């Protein structure tokens, strides 16, 4: 391997998105050295309207990220719609609030916070080889440099190439993953808010319309295969546009991706030799709402705390295994699907304020239904 770049870091964090950057922020608060590695340059080209939950806002504050720096706009309440868009209800509650953000701006702002806290970063490079020794890990990068760390946090996506190098099964290897079909478009005028459309069928289909100014994003989460998912999305978006729910430009070519929504709950392990899986790599995405920013950040935060304990423990690897219990206690309920068939409750959702509030809280707050 090529010569080492510098002395050993406490943490090597592969992936500088919300999971990796939040982990770096927490690491620095705990006086650990941290090196972020990402294949992309920042701000990365990810024009995507998204929303941040109240729990995510609290975690942003803990990291040191303010709404102004993230160019976030607050929203309050949300509107629930039936799949045929003939019924709707506005749900207002002091706790039902959040941020509307552009993910490219948000991710870059959170990374800047980590760098201000003296985390280091190497951007535009990839990990091509990972050696996990008894005393440290060594990563050879695509530019020939070598970096060393005591613990590796892996946050480079659902199909994480770094997890493969570490011989850990990332979320993308799980069977029966959900599909997310989405389209980004510019609305005819600036609008802000969150709309949730509840599917009529037992498969747990849900569509979300995020309006963050003129930038808007329609997405549909479904457990059905890609071709069927695309057909359902196309039929829904065409009917929505015909009814005035969406502008004609929303009918542009949608993008279909595999989503790790809820996958963390089904994974055998997030722990490898000197390694922890976080973010999308670890399947930390809410199964009901498909919201991934908060669980990604929280998984990174918990992983940094676990690594800090492990670095002080007599047996580092034994302490790393406590990550499973730690994230389960903090995130399991947020990640789970509601334990009910919403299609059977459809009439009540739009006629019973208590029921509509329960659905809204399950979606936005990750509360048990």
Structure, explained:
It contains eleven helices and 16 strands. β10 (about 135-140) and β11 (about 145-155) form a beta hairpin. It has helices spanning about 20-30, 55-65, 65-70, 105-115, 160-165, 225-240, 295-310, 315-320, 325-335, 345-350, 355-365, and strands at about 10-15, 35-40, 50, 75, 80, 90, 95-100, 120-125, 125-130, 135-140, 145-155, 180-200, 205-220, 255-260, 270, 275. About 30% of the residues lie in helices and about 30% in strands. The protein folds into two domains: about 10-75 and about 100-175 and about 260-335, FAD/NAD(P)-binding domain (3-Layer(bba) Sandwich), CATH 3.50.50.60; about 180-260 and about 340-365, no CATH class. α1 packs parallel to α7 and α7 (about 295-310) packs antiparallel against α9 (about 325-335). Strands 1, 2, 8, 9, 10, 11, 15 and 16 form an eight-stranded mixed sheet that branches. Strands 5, 6, 12, 13 and 14 form a five-stranded mixed sheet that branches. It has a three-stranded antiparallel sheet with strand order 3-7-4.
CATH-wise, what's the superfamily of the largest domain?
FAD/NAD(P)-binding domain
Annotation, overall tally of beta strands: 16
Number of domains: 2
Helix and strand composition category: alpha/beta
Distance between the termini: 52 Å
Overall form: globular
- Poorly predicted parts: 1-5
> In the CATH hierarchy, what is the class of the largest domain?
Alpha Beta
Q: Helices and strands, in N-to-C order?
A: EHEEHHEEEEHEEEEHEEHEEEHHHHH
Q: Bin the helical content.
A: 25-40%
**What is the third-level CATH name, the topology of the largest domain?**
FAD/NAD(P)-binding domain
Number of distinct helices: 11
Q: Mind describing the biggest β-sheet?
A: 8 strands, mixed
């Amino acid at each position: 391997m090529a010569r080492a770049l510098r002395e050993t870091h406490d943490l090597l964090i592969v992936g500088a998105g919300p999971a990796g950057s939040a982990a770096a922020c927490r690491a620095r608060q705990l006086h650990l050295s941290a090196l972020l590695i990402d294949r992309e340059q920042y701000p990365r080209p990810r024009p995507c309207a998204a929303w941040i939950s109240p729990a995510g806002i609290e975690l942003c504050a803990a990291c040191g990220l303010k709404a102004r720096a993230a160019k976030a706009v607050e929203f309050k309440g949300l509107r629930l719609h039936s799949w045929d868009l003939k019924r709707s209800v506005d749900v207002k509650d002091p706790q039902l609030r959040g941020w509307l953000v552009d993910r490219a701006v948000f991710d870059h702002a959170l990374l800047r916070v980590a760098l201000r806290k003296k985390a280091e970063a190497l951007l535009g490079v990839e990990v091509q080889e990972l050696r996990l020794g008894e005393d440290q890990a060594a990563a050879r990068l695509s530019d020939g440099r070598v970096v060393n760390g005591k613990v590796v946090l892996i946050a480079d996506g659902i199909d994480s190439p770094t997890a493969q190098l570490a011989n850990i099964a990332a979320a993308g290897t799980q069977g029966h993953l959900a599909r997310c079909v989405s389209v980004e478009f510019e609305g005819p005028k600036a609008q802000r808010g969150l709309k949730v459309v509840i599917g009529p069928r037992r498969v747990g289909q849900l569509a979300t319309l995020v309006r963050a100014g003129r930038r808007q994003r329609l997405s549909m989460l479904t457990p059905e295969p890609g071709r069927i998912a695309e057909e359902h999305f196309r039929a829904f978006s065409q009917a929505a546009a015909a009814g005035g729910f969406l502008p004609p430009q929303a009918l542009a070519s949608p993008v279909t991706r595999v989503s790790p929504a809820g996958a963390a709950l089904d994974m055998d392990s997030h722990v490898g030799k000197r390694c922890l899986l976080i973010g999308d790599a670890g399947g930390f995405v809410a199964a009901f709402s498909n919201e991934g920013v908060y669980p990604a950040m929280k998984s990174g935060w918990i992983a940094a705390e676990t690594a800090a304990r492990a670095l002080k423990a007599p047996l580092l690897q034994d302490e790393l295994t406590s990550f499973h219990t730690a994230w389960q206690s903090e995130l399991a309920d947020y990640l789970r699907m509601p334990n009910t068939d919403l299609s059977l409750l459809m009439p009540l959702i739009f006629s019973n304020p208590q029921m509509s509030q329960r659905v809204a809280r399950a979606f936005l707050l990750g509360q048990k239904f």
